[in-house]
Design goal:
single chain, globular, 6-stranded antiparallel barrel, Pnp Oxidase, Chain A, mainly beta, two-stranded antiparallel sheet, 50% strand
Length: 109
């Protein structure tokens, strides 16, 4: 049995991906795309070294499917997979890995 290693296999809405709505700030264009959303929690410490929790929301997607004009400060709306509530995020960093996949760091708005 052959294993499907195509990126399309990972970004399928029936598997790992969810639909996102990407608003390109420079043009106002809106795109509906498939991406993998992750929002892992991690321990952080405040100035008094008291533990607090935080998260780092990210989107992983195919670089070729990113909209024309995609840039930092664009907004992305998605239905959060855990609480099923639509949330808006701002793109804070885009990391293209050179293999056709990009990781976007987000900030909840």
């Amino acid at each position: 049995m052959a294993i499907n290693t195509s990126p399309d296999a990972f970004f399928n809405l029936n598997d790992f991906a969810i639909p996102i709505t990407w608003n390109v700030a420079s043009s106002g264009d809106i795109y509906i795309l498939d991406a993998i959303f992750d929002d892992p929690y991690f321990a952080a410490f405040d100035d008094g070294l008291a533990p607090v929790s935080s998260s780092t929301p990210t989107i992983t997607m195919q670089t070729a499917k990113m909209p024309v004009g995609s840039a930092v400060d664009n907004t992305i709306k998605l239905k959060h997979p855990i609480d099923n509530i639509e949330k808006t995020y701002k793109v804070k960093e885009i990391q293209r890995d050179g293999t056709g996949i990009s990781l976007l760091y987000l900030q909840l708005q």
